[in-house]
Specification:
Blueprint (H helix, E strand, L loop, with lengths): L5 H4 L5 H11 L3 E2 L11 H13 L11 H15 L9 E4 L2 H12 L5 E6 L5 H7 L3 E6 L9 H5 L6 E7 L11 H13 L3 E5 L25 E6 H4 L8 E4 L2 H12 L7 H11 L3 H24 L4 E2 L6 E5 L9 H11 L2 E2 L1 E2 L12 E5 L4 H10 L5 H4 L1
Parallel strand pairs: 1-11, 3-4, 3-5, 5-6, 6-7
Antiparallel strand pairs: 2-8, 7-8, 9-10, 10-13, 12-13
Keywords: Aminotransferase, Pyridoxal phosphate, Transferase
Cofactor: pyridoxal 5'-phosphate
Pfam families: Aminotran_1_2
């Protein structure tokens, strides 16, 4: 029998694909996987169509078309006061996952330890292991999912090459405050570690909160790789346009990895994203208001049914902690039950843990039309009470 790469051969089907397939099999409303149920901003889509018909469709620059790299640098300068050289500190990738893969493979060598916070997005650990790295898992807990000094002191050591940090945090919908970022920055500097920052949800923040990129914290400019995603910023998840921003010594190596992963990315989509990033600030603020309205609609509906909702500070998601309900089932069992019996798909947060999982929290996606959310709430109206009888 042919021996395959165990890092990947032994992986299960991702929970996102499993629950989306269950939604299709059961004709259920999919509040599991994080994508909107509309086509996305029309003017940005038209910009992509125009660039495809009237523009250049051969290989663009490996690093990304100059217009987009300049737009990324200008955008982060405007929003975060981050001064980036678009030619030496910005790279375009085929989505955020490829950006993260390029960053991890650029930094991590065999035997290096990488600190990862659970709940953890499913692509992180296989890529760390493929690079020969050793994940050091730290457990975040509801309802606040915050960092603390004791936690970090237990994991950072002389072997800590990198820390992989997701902010805003999917699935817990937390936007980390400056004090947590300064704490993490202090440990990165003390142990000479690189921070790989998954910040794809940076624009999807609510209630006047501000996303603070770790790269802007004092002492982190030259030891942070910042990852962004146009798919999340513009609700165009299928476009797969990612950004990598880092000081030249870090970006040069990440670019060499990118060269042998996807090499380049569709130029018409890059042109349209450049157009989008140059839109006025009100566009992004209005997007947040619209998303917050959908969040509030699903939150109030779930709370009226008796679900204990944890406040969503950002992302497309809100979470429910089932533990006070006495349902005598795990989050995974609850999700499989409601997709089969109530025709609504959600994601168990335990799937984001490799060890010592939190097993009582369920994630719902609210980036949907009002009619979709309302129908899902109607279907869930008896999901708690019937189970408790």
């Amino acid at each position: 029998m042919i021996s395959m790469n165990k890092v990947f051969a032994d992986l299960p089907v991702t929970i996102f694909e499993a629950m989306s397939q269950a939604a299709r099999d059961n004709n259920a409303i999919n509040l599991g996987q994080g994508f909107p149920d509309d086509p996305g901003p029309e003017d940005i889509r038209r910009a992509a169509a125009d660039a495809s018909v009237n523009g250049y469709n051969q290989y663009p620059s490996m690093m990304g078309i100059p217009e987009l790299r300049q737009a990324i640098a200008s955008h982060y300068g405007r929003w975060h006061g981050l001064n980036l050289d678009p030619m030496t500190e910005v790279m375009v990738t085929s989505g955020g996952t490829e950006a993260l893969t390029s960053a991890i493979l650029a930094v991590v060598q065999p035997g290096d330890e990488v600190i990862v916070f659970q709940p953890v997005y499913d692509s992180y650990l296989p890529i760390i292991r493929q690079a020969g790295g050793i994940p050091r898992l730290l457990r975040l807990e509801p309802p606040h999912w915050r960092l603390n000094e004791e936690m970090l002191r237990s994991a950072f050591n002389h072997k800590t090459k990198a820390v992989l940090f997701n902010n805003p945090l999917n699935p817990a919908a937390v936007v980390y405050p400056r004090e947590d970022l300064e704490l993490l920055a202090r440990f990165c500097q003390e142990f000479d570690s690189v921070a790989i920052c998954d910040e794809v949800w940076e624009h999807v923040v609510f209630d006047g909160r501000e996303h603070i990129p770790l790269i802007t914290i004092p002492g982190m400019r030259d030891r942070t790789i910042k990852v962004g995603s146009a798919g999340k910023i513009f609700s165009l998840t299928g476009w797969k346009i990612g950004f990598v921003c880092a000081a030249p010594p870090l970006l040069r190596v990440a670019a060499k990895v990118h060269q042998f992963l996807t090499f380049t990315t569709a130029p018409n989509l890059q042109a349209a994203v450049a157009y989008g990033l140059n839109k006025p600030d009100d566009y992004f603020l209005d997007m947040r208001k619209d998303m917050a309205r959908s969040r509030d609609r699903l939150t109030s509906g779930l709370e009226s049914l008796g679900f204990p909702v944890l406040k969503s500070q950002g992302t497309y998601f809100l979470t429910v902690d089932l533990s006070p309900l006495g349902l005598n089932e795990t989050d995974a069992e609850f999700c499989w039950r409601i997709v089969q019996d109530y025709k609504v798909a959600a994601i168990p947060v335990s799937a984001f843990y490799e060890q010592d999982a939190v097993t009582s929290v369920v994630r719902f996606c609210f980036a949907k039309k009002d009619s979709t959310l309302d129908t899902a709430l109607e279907r869930l109206s008896d999901a708690i009470h019937r189970r408790k009888r």
